[in-house]
Amino acid sequence: MKHIDQNKLNQKMKTRLVVNKFYKGLFFLATMFGIAVLAILIYRILSQGIGYLSLDFLMNFPSRRPEDSGISAALVGSLMLMVVVIPVSVLLGVGTAIYLEQYAAKNRFTNFIQTNIQNLAGVPSIVFGLLGLTIFVRYMSLGDSLLAGGLTMSLLILPIIVVASQEAIRSVPNSLSEASFGMGATKWQTIRRIVLPAAIPGIITGSILALSRAIGETAPLIIIGAATFAPFYPQSLLDQFTAMPIQIFGWVAKPQAEFQYVAAAGIIVLLIILLLMNSIAVFIRNKFQKRY
């Protein structure tokens, strides 16, 4: 056995401990920097917008006078947008994930599709806006309607829901499916009664987080022509509409300084809705997640 030089060993250990402390301190500083920036941002938004946040602000339509401006039309527009986005994106996304994980053959073509879906999840949102402008607004002649906006936002979050649903389905142990097949169940019976119930917490969590992105996105709606000033509620899916990010963008672009404070109040409302959606996702994950 080779003789161990205790002095060299101690020196190496000291070097490793110093390197470990260096990276620990570096990561701590990076975390604190992110928290500090977030804290400054929240403080600035709250200090500017909390004075304009009232029941009248939630009930009023936008106005040319900042003291009379409200977010009512944008709030209703965002909620109606979700009425289109939720069924289209969730049904298509979960259906695609089930096909790719349970039915599609494992070959190069399937791998090519999955790779492209994963790449689409990282494409900038403005690209989906241009796609929606070409397909829904011009080719399908839907104009700058609520339906065109909802379909465009569905395209935006569809890859995210597919990827999240695939991961949730993969997390279900194969032994459960094999036991179901052993009992004589068909493929669809196994998916419906075994795989989907076990994967549904992950699917719902991923879907809600994707919907949170959709409700906060601005670029695709600007591209398809959503209104920045809409003192009315959309009466149907083919009516013009506005949404909270668009309304906030319109207020920020105005030259009067008071509208900056109105925009900050709108950001607070949007943040509250996003926090509620994320809290629901975390609750569902913690409530129904099972360990196998």
TrEMBL record:
Organism: Lottiidibacillus patelloidae
An example Gene Ontology molecular-function term: phosphate transmembrane transporter activity
Location in the cell: Cell membrane
Key words of the record: Cell membrane, Membrane, Transmembrane, Transmembrane helix, Transport
Keyword match Transmembrane: yes
CDD domains tied to this protein: TM_PBP2
InterPro entries to which the protein is assigned, alphabetical: MetI-like, MetI-like_sf, Phosphate_PstA
Stated name of the protein: Phosphate transport system permease protein PstA
Membrane-topology annotation of the record: Multi-pass membrane protein
Keyword check for Transmembrane: yes
Principal cellular location given in the protein's record: membrane
Family: Belongs to the binding-protein-dependent transport system permease family. CysTW subfamily.
Sequence ranges assigned to domain ABC transmembrane type-1 in this UniProt record: 75-280
GO cellular component terms given for this protein: plasma membrane
Gene name tied to this protein: pstA
Alphabetized PROSITE patterns for the sequence: ABC_TM1
